[in-house]
């Protein structure tokens, strides 16, 4: 057998093997083409949580509750001092009564984020020691402050606008402010 004929013979054998391999793969594909790949995890609804309809939420007409299980709900505005989870509250304020300027407030379960979205407010902190003066932080539109957990505070209104706060309401208390 010549060198050329050996190369041709080897090429034919390789070609036959390649064709047989492709035929075998095609046969296996025919037997499994009805099977679908498993869905990705993010395509499956959570057990006990049906898919929900996505709709806009009026933040000035709803409180947003973020529960410890990861569910987020918009509900009628109601500050429940025994509620678990985080609560996002947005208010339109025009008077001192709208910001409970005559009451101190405390949140022992968590810090509180207070944001001035429009208008202007002052966040006032009750003195921690007798003889100390109130501390004030002025917030213009777009500014926020974090009130430490367990710190008595109140809000004074500088200009009508919108404010937002985020905290865990459990254990929160209000106390009437006395003039000093």
UniProtKB/TrEMBL annotation:
Region (Disordered): 1-50
Entry-linked InterPro entries: RmlC-like_jellyroll (IPR014710), RmlC_Cupin_sf (IPR011051)
Segments of skewed composition (Basic and acidic residues): 1-34
Domain of life: Bacteria
Stated name of the protein: Cupin
